[in-house]
Amino acid sequence: MSSRTRPGFSRQGGKTLRKTTTGCADAARLSVFRAFVVVWCALAVTFWPASGEAASPISTPGTEQGGAVLETASSAKASPVAAAATAYCVLDTVTGRVLSERNADQRRAPASTTKIMTALVVLEKADLEAKIKVSPKAASTRGSSMWLAAGEELTVRDLLYGLLLNSGNDAAVALAEGVGGSVESFAAFMNEKARELGATSSQFKNPHGLDENGHYSTARDLAVIARAAMANPEFAAIVATRRKVVPWNGHAEDRALHSHNKFLWSYEGATGVKTGYTGQAGKCLVASASRGGWSVIAAVLNSSRMYTDAQVLLDTAYQGYQVTTLVHKGDVVGTVRVERGGEDRVKLVAARDLVLPLNAAEQAALQREEKVPAYVTAPVSAGAVLGSVSASLNGEVLGSLEVVAAEDVRAATVLELFVDRLRGLFSSMLSTLTVYRRG
Questions:
Q1: Is residue 77 located within the same domain as residue 170?
Q2: Is residue 26 domain-resident?
Q3: CA-CA distance, 418 to 407, in Å (whole number)?
């Protein structure tokens, strides 16, 4: 009769023995231990910052998304334009870049172009409706005049029209005394403003520009000063005015002021700025124009044909350069990785337009660079500045703009972080096992 063996038992040498379970138990314990290690690692990684993770939302810029540079041939410097002026400077008001120049840093007597700085300082320090009483000194100032009389009172606004249209030296002194207390104190304000604007080759001794030892400027500095002044709406409105009537107390008629700047009549798109003449300075003109929304300034010093020079210089700029929109507001520049976020990446968009006037050679040579961090840490708010885009020529940055997050990215929940880390660990283990088996 055959003997039976109960499940879980075996026969060996006539004896019934219990089947060994040591190997199975060890395998089970190892599996449990491995699962425990995986869960522990996932929890640890979830609550432990990633290696090198920055404390701030933006890390040190890396190369994951940004750093792409488009390189082309180098561009040539703008050639001087044929002009009679001893010195000139043509300035792009968008970037402040010099488009053409001759002796632009040569110190020269600026004549009444000085009054651009005078007006800019007054506009920043005085109430336009405040009244100033004209002193005997102001009324007796020699040269061009708006016919002020000692003792009369005019508003700052009316005196500015007399200063910039009639080129009134009397108005210049009246404003200087009314705003600065004295001509000397006001000149200190002018020099302080010049340093602030970077017009460091200028020194002002008076507010009207009559020849005086130590009173000088340059074509470049005057262009820079004019750019700042034209950015002031009140100034821009005054210098664009051809005729203005202001009160004239004690007279049957009001004062009729007429601009000395004939460029306003003779050049298409002309918007200002100021003429000047003295024996030392010669004929001078700082002219501005706007075409197609692009404004250019030309400072012309000591020219026998200042209006023609200004026309040629501005025409050359408008014919040789094209205003180019390199990046539009809202354009997607790229994406950046998000650590500990509900989303893995966030889009980066331009905060505004990047517009530059460029000639043909510069368009071919332009270098564009995006600088963004290697990663950011959630939460991220829409509109948060995360990097920049710049355009340069031969290493000189012509313009730049900020790039911002296109949308909000919330911080991930603890569960999401745990699952994400767990998934990553299992994926890593699976990859390792696959490699091991192949080996």
A1: no
A2: no
A3: 24
Q: Which residues are catalytic?
A: 112, 115, 167
Q: Of 238, 220, 195, nearest to 301 (Cα)?
A: 220
Question: Under a CB-based contact definition with an 8 Å cutoff, are residues 157 and 132 in contact?
Answer: no
Residues 6+ apart with CB under 8 A from 427: none
> Band of the pLDDT at 429, cuts 50, 70, 90?
low
CATH of the domain at 180: 3.40.710.10
CATH code (residue 75) = 2.60.410.10
> Which residue from 375, 372, 377 is spatially nearest to 340, judged by alpha carbons?
377
Beta bridge partners of 339: 377
Residues 366 and 219 in one domain: no
Cis ω for the linkage preceding 357 (within 30 of 0): no
Structure tokens at 405: 């997050």
pLDDT, tens only, 14-70? 444 344 444 444 544 445 455 555 555 555 544 444 433 333 333 333 333 333 222
Is there a single domain that holds both residue 100 and residue 173?
yes
Say which DSSP state 128 is in.
T
* Sign of the CA dihedral with 221 first, then 224, 228, and 231 last: positive
Those residues whose C-beta lies under 8 Å from the C-beta of residue 198, and which sit 6 or more positions away, are: 224
Task: Express each pLDDT in 74-105 by its tens digit.
Answer: 233 455 678 899 999 999 998 899 999 999 99
106 inside domain: yes
63 shares its domain with 91: no
292 and 265 Cβ atoms separated by less than 8 Å = no
Q: What amino acid is encoded at 388 in this protein? A: S
pLDDT for 389 equals: 92
Please give the helix or strand (H or E) that residue 157 lies within, else none. helix 156-164
User: What residues make up the domain containing 389?
Assistant: 49-81+321-413
Same domain, 253 and 329: no
Secondary structure, 3-state, 135-161: CHHHHCCCCCCCCCCCCCEEEHHHHHH
Per residue in 231-290, pLDDT (tens digit) is: 999 999 999 999 999 999 888 899 999 999 999 999 999 999 999 999 999 999 999 999
Tokens 């025409």: give the residue. Answer: 315
Query: Are the beta carbons of 67 and 371 closer than 8 angstroms?
Result: yes
Same domain, 204 and 107: yes
Cβ burial of 141 (10 Å; 0-12, 13-18, 19+) is buried
Q: Report the domain count for the chain.
A: 2
Domain shared by 228 and 134, yes or no? yes
Residue 289 to residue 318: CA distance in whole angstroms? 10
Tokens representing 431 are: 């990859």
Predicted pLDDT of residue 439: 59
